[in-house]
Amino acid sequence: MDLQTLPGLFISHGSPMLALDPEQVGPALYRLSSNLPKPQAIIVMSAHWESQALEVNTSTRPETWHDFRGFPPELYNIRYPAAGAPKLAEEILALFAEAGIPAHANSTRPRDHGVWMPLLHMYPNADIPVIEISLPLYMSADDIYRIGEVLSPLRARQILLIGSGSITHNLAELSWHADADVPTWASTFRNTVVSKLSHQDFDAVLNWPSLPYIERNHPSLEHLAPLFFAMGTGHRFNIVHSSFSMGSLGMDIYRFD
């Protein structure tokens, strides 16, 4: 079988309600996956697995974790039973070791919604092995970018690399009105990031403290950091989808080839 090179992706996964109410993003995710060769496996760095050290899930079939509260009961009935890929996970650990990046196996962690929620729309049959890697708290933006670089050669083996976070993420600023305007601080931040990436100025994005309104868009960094991972997977940037939900919650999807 001839394998094709897949892109790296950054996906803004939004609220857990995306699983029940896909809005514009669910169809965009499905179109994206429909236009790609079917992956041999998927590797995801999620904003919702923060760890002290870099970890790789080596489980044969992780449980679906509903790592949120206060949502409709039907959301907690959703399962995403995709298999893991222990052999590939061990290979990933070996790649990190070769690159001098300390990493550990984790065979017990369930699969958080930063992984299964976008995949529910992309690959609803859950018939592709999925490996989650953690977001190390101690690592700099450059370090996280390097993780993407180390895994980038796997793209040539038809393995899909995904950073799952959000281009803007300030839960305290969300609006519950369907027709809420996008605030200037959110659109300016998003537009600046896109401009920098479009002009191949990746260093400006990795220097995230200098981005406009950074503290208002990201009071904590965990939802932006998966973008750094995705940036490391490829240098040719394209916008797959761009929208806002709940006023200030950016739902962009980016592709890196």
TrEMBL record:
<dbReference type="GO" id="GO:0008270">
    <property type="term" value="F:zinc ion binding"/>
</dbReference>
<protein>
    <submittedName>
        <fullName>Dioxygenase</fullName>
    </submittedName>
</protein>
<feature type="domain" description="Extradiol ring-cleavage dioxygenase class III enzyme subunit B">
    <location>
        <begin position="35"/>
        <end position="255"/>
    </location>
</feature>
<dbReference type="GO" id="GO:0008198">
    <property type="term" value="F:ferrous iron binding"/>
</dbReference>
<keyword id="KW-0862">Zinc</keyword>
<dbReference type="Pfam" id="PF02900">
    <property type="entry name" value="LigB"/>
</dbReference>
<dbReference type="GO" id="GO:0016702">
    <property type="term" value="F:oxidoreductase activity, acting on single donors with incorporation of molecular oxygen, incorporation of two atoms of oxygen"/>
</dbReference>
<dbReference type="InterPro" id="IPR004183">
    <property type="entry name" value="Xdiol_dOase_suB"/>
</dbReference>
<keyword id="KW-0560">Oxidoreductase</keyword>
<comment type="similarity">
    <text>Belongs to the DODA-type extradiol aromatic ring-opening dioxygenase family.</text>
</comment>
<keyword id="KW-0479">Metal-binding</keyword>
<keyword id="KW-0223">Dioxygenase</keyword>
<dbReference type="InterPro" id="IPR014436">
    <property type="entry name" value="Extradiol_dOase_DODA"/>
</dbReference>
